Amino acid sequence: MTERPERVVLKTELFADPEALRAALGSDGPIHRVVLPDGMPSWLVTGNEAVKQALSDPALVRGVDAAAPELRPYLGLASDDFVLTRHMLFADPPDHTRLRKLVSQAFTPRRIERLRPRVDEIAHELLDGFAAKGGADLVESLALPLPIAVISELLGVPVEDREYFERYAEILTGANSSSDFEDIVGAGRWFDEYLTELVSRRRVEQGDDMISAMVAAQERDDRLTDLEVRSNSFLLLAAGFETSVNLIANGILALLRHPDQLEDLRSDRSLMSNAVEELLRWDSPVSGITYRFAREDTVLGGAAIAAGEHVALSPPSANHDSSKFPDPARLDLRRRTNGHLSFGHGIHFCIGAPLARLEGEVVFAAVLDRLAGLALAVPVETLTWKETFLVHRLDSLPVTFEPEAS
After folding, report:
1. Catalytic residue among 66, 78, 239, 366
2. Which CATH class, in words, describes the domain spanning 8-400?
3. Chain segment 128-187, per-residue pLDDT in tens
4. Between these two residues, 399 and 74, which has the higher pLDDT value?
5. Is 350 a residue of the active site?
6. Is the pTM of the predicted complex or chain greater than 0.90?
7. What share of residues in the chain are helix, strand, coil (percent, to 5)?
8. How many separate helices (H) and strands (E) can be counted in the chain?
9. Is 239 an active-site residue?
């Protein structure tokens, strides 16, 4: 067992850059004592196998009741009876098992695959809006609106409400970093009020959507509280689009930065499924996974974790672990990508992974089909990213292409 070293104070931008993070940590070890950008003292797990272990270790729990008292000032809304955190992502068994079993019924690979024609239709409708112009911001015009439209339809959110959902969800993706705490509280209250009204509406007018399914389950056996219905609806709305937005935008940018890989994919569409996995590995949509606490003393990656300590995880670093992926900085759409952790691992593996994968496949194919001569409209070094260490989100992706004939 190693001695407890001094904590390394980390900046937000390091979390999406495995090489820079490794240099800042000063060690290739799998786990490090750090101070997160929001000031919370933590362990940061970077090794692929150690991250897998942390994601499946029953001694590391999501419930904030296990957090040491000195961590309470950093927990914010997670310690309150609040719609943002009373969902399965912050639950431990047996509550997590109960909640996930219900929600996962809507996200099986077979049910998601049936959405492919509709996702393809939405993608081409969005492309119709700008393909003849010769230029666009692909975040604003494609990567953001497509996942929001898909998850909104899946949950039964009316079209006229989606711009408000997008506005407040943007505030919440900056939690722990760029967004003010009061703004986060306000966004959370808006979601709580909105979902209270929407759930009430679904009790009277049930439809073929996920919120209606949760309401029906609650009425059948009363195993879901009203707060759990609202909170899990929020989780599916927010988490159901964020990963896909970043996969699409980051993936297109990665292909533009590697024209040989772009042309390889353009000429061989059989690579598409594997390409999505490699793009997820190479530039993870999620930069940091937080809020895991040791409920008892445990050992992880050779380090002694004391009860109550916080453990954060770095999917980008795990995905660039050279012991798992040789030459990890090289983008290779033909690489065997088994073992990337962009969707997590264990009981909290991303429930929306099949949907994100499908949306990536559909959008990349549509872009290759319709945007000939696709190129960045600005130097890559001028692109900016949302200031948060939780996700890796481009602010914009300006591109040019050959205008499509009307």
Report:
1. 239
2. mainly alpha
3. 999 999 999 999 999 999 999 999 888 888 888 888 887 887 777 654 455 567 787 788
4. 399
5. yes
6. yes
7. 55, 10, 35
8. 15, 11
9. yes
